[in-house]
Design brief:
CATH superfamily of the domain at 27-55 and 117-224: P-loop containing nucleotide triphosphate hydrolases
CATH architecture of the domain at 27-55 and 117-224: 3-Layer(aba) Sandwich
Largest sheet: 5 strands, parallel
Number of helices: 8
Order of helices and strands: EHEEEHEEHEHEHHEHH
Bound molecules: guanosine-5'-monophosphate
Shape: globular
Radius of gyration: 17 Å
Structural class: alpha/beta
Number of strands: 9
CATH topology of the domain at 27-55 and 117-224: Rossmann fold
Distance between the termini: 28 Å
Strand content: 15-25%
Oligomer: single chain
Length: about 230
């Protein structure tokens, strides 16, 4: 499938290791409702583009089966989280579905100072805080192809109770309405496609993606004419 970068990540050679040399030292924030597929997109991006550095968040949520401390998250107690927040060690933090999540400040700043691109995968409230803290950050919103697809993804995941899924769907309704606050919106029609678009954005010179741009793929835009997505446009 054609993407914004002109092809999918299946063609690994499109993203040589040296590609990062041309990537600006900019903070890219990938956000969007829980269940939209952010972590799948980021996992694919990290596999195919090892030059993409991603922040590891701290959270008070208990680990899911298979999650490893220091890889998916640093799993903290409430007290540990409070201590980090009160010492100003978090670039942003937010409460989501009964748990707290935050981005450790120092590793992100070190990465940017060293001159490399950095990626955060966080919720909408956190993205708003990054907008204020790091004015040059590029905020990318990942939207589902439809509301039904988001409900399906959250329901089949089978890692959360019905009550938690309900909380996440409530949060998703509010988060979808926030899409217009972002610089770029990508519709998650396929992991390959979104990865290619993200890589293109990270490699683009800062300033090319102006606030208010909409970067939905041609296919997505056509598919979504006259659907719920139209209602989210400013
Ligand atoms: P999950 O519990 O499914 O791993 O994540 C729940 C939500 O928290 C997701 O929307 C995820 O993007 C968000 N999240 C993960 N890390 C952070 C973070 O450091 N800060 C904020 N604000 N949200 C985060």
């Amino acid at each position: 499938m054609q993407g914004a970068a002109g092809g999918g990540l299946a063609a690994r050679s499109r993203y040589p290791r040296g590609a990062y040399r041309g990537a600006p030292a900019r903070l890219t924030v990938l956000s969007g409702p829980s269940g939209v597929g952010k972590s799948t997109v980021v996992a694919r991006l990290r596999r195919d583009c090892p030059w993409v550095w991603q922040s590891v968040s701290v959270t008070t949520r208990p680990p899911r089966p298979g999650e490893i401390d220091g890889r998916e998250y640093f799993f903290l107690t409430e007290e540990q989280f409070d201590a980090m927040a009160s010492r100003g060690e978090l670039l942003e933090f937010a409460q989501f579905a009964g748990h707290r999540y935050g981005t450790p400040r120092a590793p992100v700043l070190q990465r940017l100072e060293r001159g490399g691109p950095a990626l955060l995968e966080i919720d909408v409230e956190g993205a708003r805080q990054v907008r204020r803290a790091v004015p040059g950050a590029l905020l990318v919103f990942l939207a589902p192809p439809s509301w039904e697809e988001l409900v399906r993804r959250l329901t089949v995941r089978d890692t959360e109770s019905k009550a938690v899924i309900g909380q996440r769907l409530d949060a998703a309704r509010a988060e979808l309405a926030a899409g217009r606050e972002f610089d770029v919106t990508l519709v998650n029609t396929s992991v390959e496609h979104v990865c290619a678009q993200l890589v293109a954005l990270m490699l683009a010179d800062a300033g090319e993606a102006e606030p208010g741009d909409r970067c939905a793929s041609q296919r997505s835009t056509a598919d979504l004419e006259g659907t719920w997505w139209q209602g989210l446009r400013p």
